[in-house]
């Protein structure tokens, strides 16, 4: 039976803006943090995903050139937002708070597709999952546990999912690692 998905969570890799970083690099970071995929899932989905990365916590990674790379299969529980992994999908943009036009375009297309598949799912940034410490019903900047994904997802959605000018990485620092 398919997982019930109630949310899509947008993340950033918290890496230097414009510097290449891959899902294999994320897998290594997540392995160091103790994340792991179930061995049966790795075997079951390796052909579909095209990899056997054992630790990646996100379901999707968007690289600088806009390439969309699978992480975990959507039927796997992620490791990307503590306390909410069982019913969410994690999307990670390479960078911290500035993303290329290609990344913005891929994010827009991915979110549009995921909203078609999961029409009742909310779309939020990782920081929006921070606790409402003062109990006023709003998670304010001083309550954020992380800045991730480095931009306000609600503002981006309300603006038609167009690139946010203050969060645009015009040119990668170095596409050759």
Automatic annotation (TrEMBL):
Annotated N-acetylmuramoyl-L-alanine amidase domain ranges read 1-138
According to the UniProt entry, its GO molecular function terms are:
N-acetylmuramoyl-L-alanine amidase activity
SMART domains per the UniProt record, alphabetical? Ami_2
Instruction: Give the top-rank taxon of the lineage listed in the UniProt record for this protein.
Output: Bacteria
List, alphabetically, the InterPro entries matched: Amidase/PGRP_sf, Amidase_domain, EF_Hand_1_Ca_BS
User: What's one Pfam family the UniProt record gives for this protein?
Assistant: Amidase_2
Q: Which GO terms describe its biological process?
A: peptidoglycan catabolic process
Instruction: Please identify the protein, giving its name as recorded.
Output: N-acetylmuramyl-L-alanine amidase, negative regulator of AmpC, AmpD
């Amino acid at each position: 039976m398919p997982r019930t998905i109630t949310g899509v969570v947008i993340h950033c890799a918290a890496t230097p803006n414009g510097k290449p970083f891959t899902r294999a690099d994320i897998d290594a970071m997540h392995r160091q943090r103790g994340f792991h995929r179930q061995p049966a899932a790795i075997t079951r989905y390796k052909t579909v995903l095209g990899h056997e990365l054992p630790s990646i916590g996100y379901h999707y990674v968007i690289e600088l050139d806009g390439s969309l790379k699978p992480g975990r299969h959507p039927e796997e529980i992620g490791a990307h937002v503590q306390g909410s992994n069982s019913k969410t999908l994690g999307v990670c943009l390479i960078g911290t708070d500035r993303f290329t036009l290609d990344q913005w375009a891929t994010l827009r297309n991915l979110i549009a597709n995921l909203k078609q598949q999961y029409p009742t799912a909310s779309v939020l940034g990782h920081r929006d999952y921070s606790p409402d410490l003062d109990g006023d019903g709003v998670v304010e900047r001083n309550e954020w546990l992380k800045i991730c994904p480095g931009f306000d997802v609600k503002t981006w959605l309300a603006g038609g999912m167009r690139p946010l000018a203050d969060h645009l990485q015009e040119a990668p620092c170095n596409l050759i690692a």
